[in-house]
Amino acid sequence: MASIAIILAPGPAQALVLARTVSDGRRAGIMTALGLNIGTLIHALAAAVGISAILATSAIAFAIVKYLGAAYLVYLGLQALRDTPHASPLHSLPHSTPLQLFAKAVATGILNPKVALFFLAFLPQFVDPQRGSVFAQFVVLGGLLALLDMGYETMLALIASMLRSWLAGNQRFAVWRQRATGAVLIGLGVRLALLRRD
């Protein structure tokens, strides 16, 4: 449920999928979604390596990551509540082949520092060292998040290809979605701040 809430949060990845779909068609949007989620998997593996070591060795390092992560989530939530949403991120983009779109999306996902920070803030609160390998838990949870996100962004691409004019003008939906997202992010940040290492 937490993954679904995070996936529904509006962000640059969804904006890119929508923009590519409108600019280059349904296939372009799906290839962009696939590339972005390959980047997500790479971040999940990186978080698994780094955070598993932190959880196992240092209470101070764990606390630092925990509170920085909680602050980041609350910041994102407050920013979502404060910002004026735009009904549509759609705009004209340069035309590219599906393979080029995929490669650009992978690079975008990997090079986005917010994705790395988000994994450091989000995944640790669902990892329990008492339930087995911390590394394996990170990989499984990150993989599930990427799989759910791929499904959602594919659905966005399919819908965007059919509802271009509606997406371009529905300000009320954008406002409602952004407020709900802000509340969820703040809640996750508070939950992370209260997490105990033991």
Summarize the structure in words.
With 198 residues, the protein is mostly helical. The protein has helices at residues 2-8, 12-24, 26-57, 59-82, 98-111, 113-122, 134-162, 164-169, 171-193. The longest helix has 32 residues, at 26-57. The radius of gyration is 17 Å and the shape is globular. The two termini are 24 Å apart.
Helix-strand layout with pairing:
Layout: H1 2-8, H2 12-24, H3 26-57, H4 59-82, H5 98-111, H6 113-122, H7 134-162, H8 164-169, H9 171-193
Helix pairs in contact: 1-7, 1-9, 2-3, 2-7, 3-5, 3-6, 3-7, 4-6, 4-9
Tell me roughly what share of residues is in helical segments. Answer: over 70%
Structural class: mainly alpha
SSE arrangement, N to C? HHHHHHHHH
Query: What does the main sheet amount to?
Result: none
Number of helices: 9
- Computed CA radius of gyration, to the nearest angstrom: 17 Å
Indicate the low-confidence ranges by residue numbers. Answer: 87-93
Give the overall average pLDDT.
76
Number of strands: 0
C-alpha end-to-end distance: 24 Å
From the spread of the alpha carbons, the general shape counts as globular
Share of β-strand residues: under 5%
